[in-house]
Amino acid sequence: MSEQFLFPPDFLWGAATAAYQIEGSPLADGAGPSIWHRFSHTPGNTTNGDTGDVACDHYYRYASDIALMRELGLKGYRLSISWSRIFPEGKGRINQAGLDFYSRLIDTLLESEIMPNVTLYHWDLPAALDDLGGWLNRDIASWFGDYASTMFDALGDRVSMWATLNEPFVVMDGGYMHGNLAPGHRNMYEAPIVTHNLLRAHGIGVQAFRARNAANSRIGLVVNLEPRYDASDSTEDKAAAVRMDAYSNRHYLDPALLGEYPGELKEIFGEAWINPSDEDMQLIRQPLDFIGVNYYSRSVIRYDETRPPFYASPVAQIGNPHTEMGWEVYPPGLTRILTRIKARYGDIPLYITENGSAFADPPAATDGRIEDPLRVDYLRAHLRAIHAAMEQGVNLRGYFAWSLLDNYEWSHGYSKRFGIVHVDYETQARTIKDTGKFYTRVIESNGAALG
Ligand code: FCB
After folding, report:
1. What's the rounded Cα separation, in Å, for the pair 297 and 225?
2. CB contact at 8 A, 244 and 299
3. Which of 167, 190, 264, 328 is catalytic?
4. Which of 63, 262, 263, 389 would disulfide-bridge 250, Cβ 3.0–4.6 Å?
5. What is the helix (H) or strand (E) element at residue 18, kind and residue range?
6. Whole-prediction pTM value?
7. For ligand 1, is residue 224 a contact (CB within 6 Å)?
8. pLDDT digit string (tens) for 135-193?
9. CB–CB of 390/11 below 8 Å?
10. Which residues contact 140 (CB under 8 A, 6 or more apart)?
11. What is the CA(122)–ligand 1 centre distance, in A?
């Protein structure tokens, strides 16, 4: 072991999950259906028709899962709350049993000295709100504000790290632009409206948080970032990469941190683009305590005249390793995106709130061991990449591996395994993979094991 990869003593080593992907029993104890419940129960939407009905059964197994986190040596755990467990109809009546579940979960984490990092919205909108237009309805910002306030009141005495939204880009792009995620719309005219309402909801959520004046408590926004490299030095390719960077990376960070949308969005969306009021833009730009970055891969972009509205296509990087998702393994992209955030937005504290890889696991060896060398390599290389960014002055405070458990990978169902812990879906048995064991050594040595 060398000292070359040491991290600061208070670096927050954790792992992440999301409610619909692990909990199961989505309608238990009075909860209402979410858009993911409906989407996954609609034939044709997911691989093998898989749903989150059982998932990892975490709703009933949370205590033993927290024991597992302890065994792994995690210092932090990022989870999300299912809005429709708290408000079965999306707003109005509160379901106490839903609040009680998360309250027990948080207490058990704290007893185990694991810091909870709670995301309010990780894609599972109450179906009742979708019936009212969901993210297309301007009123959703205040519905979200009421939900957020309820959670701050219920858990704010114990939870000191919050995020409003997970990956608003994916909510818009997957949910409303391309339709591969719930609620499955494909409508370019809806996308800018959805974006704007997501950001207004974020703004109102942060205001509600500040109104409670919680000392030592922090709130941020979680975005997925995918650095866009140009395929060549041609003016067209460079412009296409910049356009895609605006669409996927600056789309949410610019309004949240700088108070304006990137100009390229108007170019991309044309007459579908919106004219936001100054008042809305002020609401959206709230002081934030941190940004959570989800990073999986990069893309290389060339100009493509056949693909409106982006006029851009990714170029396959043949020869480079790819995960089961088809995503290129490219650790330098993580260093690059972190240094670029610092250059553009300044020294706001950052966390990696998700990073990980799907690979097919070999069957357990006779001694029960699950060897997943590709995932170990991915983790090691990306942790070295964040260390490199920190050496370049990036204010990075923690890292959450995606994911604690193999889980329900949205429209891919159970076919993609991201866990550092293996889940046998027949028996619900958990087995720590080699990646999980490696991560434990990294945590115990505070990075030295990366050498
Ligand atoms: C991210 C999601 C997360 C998980 C990973 C693989 O976009 O936030 O829930 O599905 O991708």
Report:
1. 8
2. yes
3. 167
4. 262
5. none
6. 0.98
7. yes
8. 999 999 999 999 999 999 999 999 999 999 999 999 999 999 999 999 999 999 999 99
9. no
10. 129, 133, 134, 197, 201
11. 9
